[in-house]
Amino acid sequence: MWRIILKDLMVQKSNIFIILFLCISISGTMYRSPGIAGVQLLLGVYFMLIYANSYDFKYNGEIMINSLPINRKEIVLAKYLSAIVYALIIMVIIIPESMILYLFNFPGLTGGIQGIVSFLGIVVLLLSLYISIYLPLYYRLGYMRSRWANFISMFVIFGLIGAVGQLTKMPADELETTSQGLEQLIMILNGYADPVIYLMMLVVGIVLLVLSFKVSVRIYKNKDF
Hints:
By secondary structure, the protein is mostly helical.
């Protein structure tokens, strides 16, 4: 199973400069505009996951993997873990970068550790929601047909972010983009120091992933190659 995850990471080598550029961009906007940074991080995981799946489709990776002595449950688990690893890689890069920029008084950066914590809390929940929607569709529809489903799922998630932002505090005419909606949620969370809020986000994210994983395993076990 870990070799499958390593394979998904190795295929990202050709995109390393794009990923690094994205991480630098997120680090520079995390304090100044955390909403944009959140959207960028989610798009980074989206890009890496789609690229790995397109590689499997192009080189018949699914057939090759299923010829190995590994059960289908572990194959599905490897895909979920790969998506989580992508997010962790981006976070491991951007958090030190953003803190360094903040400590050196990079122009336009305000905020602190609380801002990073709330930013990560929202991102974890959004990533869990995205992965939980996309991967069952990927296993059910296949790579080609799931591309539109993937785009629609991202559109729905961003729409929900904007809708929640409108309902919470800001008037509808002042909230025009998805990134502004996400930024509004982060501003609201910055007013709470209670770690229970972030723990609840983590629990909800884990529950979504577990339920999604069970659905994906059931679909994949009944799939023919």
